[in-house]
Design a protein that fits this description.
- This protein is α+β, with helices and mostly antiparallel strands and 145 residues long.
- The chain is built from two helices and five strands; from the N terminus they run E-E-E-H-E-E-H.
């Protein structure tokens, strides 16, 4: 039996309904704070699970996970997963394929998220962090045709 008397539990905390909280679709500055390799649901492949933590704004500290198919019977799924991992490695300055993912931790990047048809957040893209000046310079240098 656990004694919870002196654990500082908040009697006013909202009751958890079991649904994972979502945040609005958009772009968020994050860092990788964790990862793991686990089998796919069917057991026929492997997922690389990226744990992204938002580091700025209203949703700071929120964690968003992304499952990348790194081994899959579907070559298309596998190529998408490995290609996404390769992009993430390039963005954070780590050679692909990485021997050790710890070198990817704590380096900021941008994720674009949406809300899927089940009402959960999903990571749609990984992008490098850009400064406002660099973004303006890129948009000003676009050709009009």
């Amino acid at each position: 039996m656990a004694n919870l008397m002196n654990e500082g539990l908040d009697e006013n905390v909202p009751e958890n309904t079991g649904k994972i909280p979502t945040i609005p679709a958009g772009e968020y500055k994050v860092v990788m704070i964790g990862d793991e390799i686990k089998p796919t649901v069917a057991g026929t492949g492997k997922l690389f699970v990226v744990k992204n933590q938002i580091i700025e704004g209203e949703y700071k500290q929120h964690i968003l996970k992304d499952n990348l198919n790194i081994k899959n019977p579907s070559i298309v799924c596998q190529n998408i997963g490995q290609g996404t991992l390769k992009r993430l490695c390039r963005i954070v300055g780590v050679s692909f394929p990485p021997n050790d993912t710890s070198f990817m931790y704590g380096k900021p990047y941008i994720i674009s998220i949406s809300i899927n048809d089940k009402g959960y957040n999903q990571v749609d893209a990984y992008n490098p962090v850009t400064t406002d000046a660099a973004s303006k310079a890129q948009s000003n240098s676009k050709k009009p045709w």
